[in-house]
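ok so I'm stuck.
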Amino acid sequence: MPDAQEITATLHAIAQDFSTDVIARQKRSELDPADFKRLSQAGFLLTGVPVEQGGLWQGPDKSARPYAEMVRTIAHGDPSVALVASMHPAVTAFFLGVPVVDDAPAAWAQQRQWVIESARTAWWGTVTSEPGSGGDILRTKSVAKPHADQYLLSGDKHFGSGSGHADYMITTARVAGSELPELFFLENKDEPWDGST
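replied:
not stuck anymore, here's the structure
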């Protein structure tokens, strides 16, 4: 299993390849899945997996600097790819950073482990920003209503890192009766963007 330094060295080579095509990349209006496949093959997705399970996550105090170095390295080749890639460890950290909860500990452990397993092979992104929120997720106006064993979300989101590429996206919405917004994740790989599903 490669360590953070080995992955960063591989990312450096990938970024150099990206930079040879900088003009064409700056004109792009969508992400190229091949770029993210290369990052995955380099081991970048392991940023969303705890070290005790074969990944790189050792908590924010030990992982923030090497993660930032990886993203900075990618950005030298393509800043847009780096921005989207940076969301993977940032989003999975919501789950990695809370190993145990008092409320429904078994359900949390199961969901947390599911996220960890998905993070080995699937990209995570975020679509939380809303018009007028200033990026503050506590100001979400989106609404979540229970529907069978999941929720239906309705609202306006105007920025999503990884849109059209990420396999899973986190978002926020308010559930009736909850004081604070809740965090949700959407499976959206290959889903239409018209809200029909």
